[in-house]
Design brief:
With 166 residues, the chain is of the alpha+beta class. Helices cover 17% and strands 37% of the residues. The chain has a 4-stranded antiparallel beta sheet with strand order 1-2-3-4, with no helix packed on it. The longest helix is centred in the N-terminal third of the chain and has 23 residues. It is globular. The termini are far apart.
C-alpha cells in the first residue's frame, strides 16, 4: 500500500474511532443540551491540523485553548505517539502556532508562529513567521525574518521550504 494511502487510512480510522467513542458516551437526555452555557462554549479546547509523520510513528497536531486575560485563542504544537501512549507538548508561551508541517525525513517540523523573534526589540510589531523545531527536543528557532507576515508554508524537499507572504 503506498505510504500516502496508508497515512490517509490511519488518520481516517483515528477520526472514525474518536467519533464513534464520543457518540457512544454522548448523553441521550434532551435536557443535557440546555446545561451548556455561553461560557462553556467559549472556553472549550480544540484540536486541529493533524499531520502524521512520514515514518508513520507520530501524529502532530495543534491544541488551541482560550486565554481569558488576552481575550484570544492560544495554540500550541503537540506530538502523540502512534505506537505507544506518549504525548508531548512541543511549544509553550504566548505566541500561537499554526500550520505545522513535517520535513520529508521526519527530523524537523516547520510551523507558523507570531512569537517574538529573538532579534526583535520589545516595541517591534509581532508578525507571523516560519519557525523550525526538532520534534525530539530543544527550542524552536526562526527561519524567516522578513518585513511581511507569512501566510502559508510547505516543504519542497528535506532542505527547502516554500512559503507565501503578504
Amino acid at each position: 500500500m503506498p505510504r500516502n494511502t496508508l497515512r490517509a487510512s490511519l488518520l481516517t480510522s483515528m477520526i472514525c474511532g474518536v467519533t464513534a467513542f464520543a457518540a457512544e458516551d454522548a448523553p441521550t437526555s434532551p435536557k443535557s443540551n440546555a446545561d451548556w452555557t455561553v461560557d462553556d462554549v467559549l472556553s472549550f479546547e480544540r484540536a486541529s491540523d493533524f499531520r502524521v509523520s512520514p515514518d508513520c510513528r507520530w501524529a502532530l497536531w495543534v491544541k488551541s485553548v482560550p486565554d481569558k486575560d488576552k481575550n484570544e485563542w492560544v495554540s500550541h504544537l503537540f506530538l502523540s505517539s502512534l505506537t505507544g501512549g506518549k504525548e508531548v507538548q512541543l511549544t509553550r508561551g504566548g505566541g500561537g502556532c499554526s500550520s505545522p508541517r513535517w520535513s520529508p525525513d521526519s527530523q524537523l517540523i516547520a510551523f507558523l508562529s507570531s512569537r517574538p523573534h529573538p532579534k526583535d526589540k520589545p516595541d517591534d510589531k509581532e508578525k507571523t513567521g516560519v519557525w523550525l523545531i526538532n520534534p525530539f527536543g530543544g527550542e524552536p528557532w526562526p527561519l524567516t525574518d522578513g518585513e511581511r507576515a507569512v501566510l502559508a508554508l510547505n516543504w519542497a524537499d528535506t532542505n527547502n521550504i516554500i512559503y507565501t507572504a503578504q
